[in-house]
Automatic annotation (TrEMBL):
InterPro entries: ADH-like_C, ADH-like_N, ER, GroES-like_sf, NAD(P)-bd_dom_sf. Pfam families: ADH_N (PF08240), ADH_zinc_N (PF00107). Gene3D superfamilies: Medium-chain alcohol dehydrogenases, catalytic domain, NAD(P)-binding Rossmann-like Domain. This is NADPH:quinone reductase-like Zn-dependent oxidoreductase. SMART domains: PKS_ER. Keywords: NADP, Oxidoreductase. GO terms for molecular function: NADPH binding; oxidoreductase activity, acting on NAD(P)H. The keyword Ribosomal protein does not apply. Residues 2-313 form the Enoyl reductase (ER) domain.
Length: 315
């Protein structure tokens, strides 16, 4: 089978011909139709989980995916051959990832039945970004009518967060790089868009919301930037960063809840998203569809933070 893999940590990903995996007890064999690309994928080949989970090489990349069950292993009860599934395929050992034509996934991992209303490409775009957005908003715990600033709104997580926040009755301020992005974010539910290329974000938000905002989801700022943005939050408000740059003491000093945020993937969380999706409550922001051969270049762009929108790999 074709797969995108590395032979050692920090290697450049390449397309390899590798053996089709054999189903094991408690696992399912999925014929992958599409895989979602996330920054965490290249962080894994850089060794972010080294020492925390076992790895195997060649290490096939990828966490998010969607496809069809081709075979079930002994003891599997949740799925049967022919089921359409999606989710986070990550499991031990790291290296049996979704950037492949076939993947082995434990039944008890973060996969579930795919939303009936989505194509495989759309489903593959949902798991990590969708669950992250959902859980960020749950953690912020804002009330209807509150204002939330989403910094990094145009990416996968930001696009989902904008929609989910607007659906909860929150007033969303979305950061954008240009008018095309601003129009897209308004269609997704943003009440206000701020072009961070025209003037410093802090200055623009302060001018438009002198009394402050109730919450901040920061998907892009470094430590200094996140700390500066805390001055935009009302006392008693909440701020979260997915970049792990929060100074807990700085938040406490300003009476702001939150800090560093890490997604907890689960089948239950995905099932909740599936319900929202099948009720027509989410637009899936697939911006780029690529082939396995295009993945190395797409990873390079992601490393440079130059990727635009959600990228999905079509098998």
């Amino acid at each position: 089978m074709k797969a995108v893999a590395v032979s050692k940590f920090k290697d450049i990903p390449v397309v390899m011909d590798l053996p089709k995996p054999a189903v094991r007890a408690g696992t399912v064999l999925v014929k992958v139709a599409a895989a979602g690309l996330n920054p965490f994928d290249w962080k894994m080949i850089d060794g972010i989980l080294d020492g925390k989970m076992p790895h195997q090489f060649p290490l096939i990349m990828g966490v998010d995916g969607a496809g069809t069950i081709e075979e079930v292993g002994e003891g599997v009860t949740r799925f049967k051959k022919g089921d359409r599934v999606y989710g986070q395929f990550i499991h031990a050992p790291i290296g049996e990832g979704s950037y492949a034509e076939y993947v082995i996934v434990p039944e008890k991992s973060g996969i579930t039945h795919a939303p009936v209303s989505l194509s495989a490409a759309e489903a593959a775009a949902v798991p990590t970004a969708g669950m992250t957005a959902q859980q960020l908003l749950d953690k912020l715990d804002l009330q209807e009518g509150d204002t939330v600033l989403i910094n990094g709104a145009t990416g996968g997580v930001g696009s989902f967060a904008t929609q989910l926040a607007a659906a909860q009755g929150l007033r969303v301020i979305a950061t954008v790089p240009d008018e095309d992005a601003a129009e897209r974010m308004r269609k997704l539910g943003a009440a206000v868009t701020i072009n961070y290329k025209q003037a410093p974000l802090y200055d623009q938000v302060k001018a438009q919301f002198p009394g402050g905002v109730d919450g901040l989801i920061d998907l892009v700022s470094d430590g200094e930037g996140f700390k500066a943005n805390l001055d935009l939050i009302k006392p008693g408000g909440a701020a979260l960063t997915t970049v792990f740059v929060a100074d807990e003491e700085a938040l406490k000093a300003k009476n702001i809840r939150g800090g560093n945020f890490e997604t907890q993937g689960s089948a239950a969380s995905l099932n909740t998203l599936s319900l929202v999706i099948d009720r027509g409550g989410l637009t899936i922001p697939v911006e780029n569809k690529i082939k396995l051969e295009d993945v190395p270049a797409a990873i390079a762009l992601s490393r440079q933070a130059q990727g635009k929108g959600k990228t999905v790999i079509i098998m």
